[in-house]
């Protein structure tokens, strides 16, 4: 029987992954602001190193775990329930954490009646999947961010491992997944995000 990679999650990973998901979600929302700050000489080196570390981390995850076998968790994970309504993480790119991609309705809580919770190792694999999808979200945003990357030199740090990450993510994100995600995101956004 092929391994799903759950045996590769360590105690440290189980403690760190929920926080990394928050950080990664925030990063997908605020990437353009970070790129704009990269022109600031005092922050330039730190921002370049952060992008490099982020890209290396995603590449390591994509090469360590069988990306095409990473599960989607159909209920709110503990950290998702804790951040419901938390404005810094509310954005169309983070809706997949809180809403079903198929129906567009909010995912049930892990402790709701009738919800069968997965083993913690399987939940960790779902968190890794979400981190990789955040990386894909940033990759898809690259078109609009490209001029800033070129002027700050950040293209190099993101592309160091981009090809390996992209190959792995292609296994996970077929055209149908992207289409369903986009349709669900648009439907959910229309219903739940306040009009500006």
Describe the structure.
- The chain is an all-alpha fold.
- The protein has one domain (6-192).
- The chain has helices at residues 11-37, 41-64, 78-82, 95-98, 120-152, 154-159, 162-172, 175-192.
- The radius of gyration is 17 Å and the shape is globular.
- Residues 143-168, 171-179 and 191-196 have low confidence and may be disordered.
Features:
196 residues, mainly alpha
Q: Report Rg.
A: 17 Å
Average pLDDT, to the nearest integer? 74
Number of E strands: 0
| Oligomeric form | single chain
Strand content: under 5%
Outline the fold blueprint.
Elements: H1 11-37, H2 41-64, H3 78-82, H4 95-98, H5 120-152, H6 154-159, H7 162-172, H8 175-192
Helix pairs in contact: 1-5, 2-5, 2-7
Structure summarized in a few sentences:
The chain has 196 residues and is mostly helical. It has eight helices and no strands.
């Amino acid at each position: 029987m092929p391994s799903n990679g759950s045996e590769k999650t360590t105690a440290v990973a189980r403690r760190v992954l929920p926080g990394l998901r928050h950080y990664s979600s925030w990063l997908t929302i605020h990437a353009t602001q970070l790129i704009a700050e990269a022109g600031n000489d005092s922050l330039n080196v730190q921002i370049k190193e952060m992008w490099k570390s982020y890209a290396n981390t995603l590449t390591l995850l994509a090469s360590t775990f069988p990306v095409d076998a990473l599960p989607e968790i159909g209920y709110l994970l503990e950290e998702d329930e804790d951040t419901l309504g938390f404005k810094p993480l509310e954005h169309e790119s983070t809706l997949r954490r809180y809403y079903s991609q198929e129906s567009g309705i909010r995912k049930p809580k892990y402790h709701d009646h009738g919800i069968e919770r997965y083993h913690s190792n399987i939940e960790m694999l779902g968190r890794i999947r979400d981190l990789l999808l955040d990386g894909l979200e940033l990759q898809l945003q690259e078109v609009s961010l490209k001029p800033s990357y070129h002027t700050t030199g950040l293209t190099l740090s993101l592309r160091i491992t981009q090809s390996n990450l992209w190959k792995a993510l292609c296994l996970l994100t077929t055209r149908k997944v992207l289409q369903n995600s986009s349709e669900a995101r648009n439907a959910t956004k229309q219903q739940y995000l306040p009009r500006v």
